[in-house]
Amino acid sequence: MKHIGDVIWFCESWTDRIVCGVISNIILGKGYEVEGNVYRFGDEKSFIGTCPVAFDNYWETEEEARFAITQRNKKRIEKYKSEIVTVQDLVNFPLINNFGSEEYTDYEAIQAYKERATELGFVLQEK
After folding, report:
1. So what's the pLDDT on residue 37?
2. Which residue, 77, 82, 62, is CA-closest to 11?
3. What is the domain partition of the chain in residue ranges?
């Protein structure tokens, strides 16, 4: 268990950025309240304000966080791809997943869609 004042790394759910912050409070049974500090860590590594972080969603270092998030995203892509077996599945997939909803956009769903479309023989044109 971490303590108030410790620095942790986590993935912001609304931006998918891996950032760090300083634990300012412990939320019993749930996680930590973390304060960003862009002056100490820089704009690219931290955030402004406070953010709740679950006990199972933080890492000690940036490298550990990046590795864990990359592995999580690969699993999500594979799960999505397993849902797309036929052309009909491919047509329906973007209708049930968020492809263009700002902070709700599911980039792993988009990646899975593109990969499976290519595997099914479609030639995708990137803009």
Report:
1. 92
2. 62
3. 7-60, 69-119
Residues near 90 by beta carbon (within 8 Å), at least 6 away in sequence: 84, 113, 116, 117, 120, 122
Question: Among the residues of 1-126, which ranges form H helices?
Answer: 38-41, 62-83, 87-96, 107-119
Q: DSSP state, 103?
A: G
Q: What is the CA radius of gyration of the chain?
A: 18
CA 37 from centroid of its chain's CA atoms? 20
Residue 34, judged by CB atoms within 10 A of its CB (0-12, 13-18, 19+), counts as buried
94-to-15, 27, 91 alpha-carbon distances in Å = 20, 37, 7
Distance separating alpha carbons of residues 107 and 98, to the nearest angstrom: 8
Give the global pTM.
Answer: 0.81
DSSP 104: G
Q: What is the pLDDT of residues 87-114, one digit of tens each?
A: 999 999 999 999 988 778 899 999 999 9
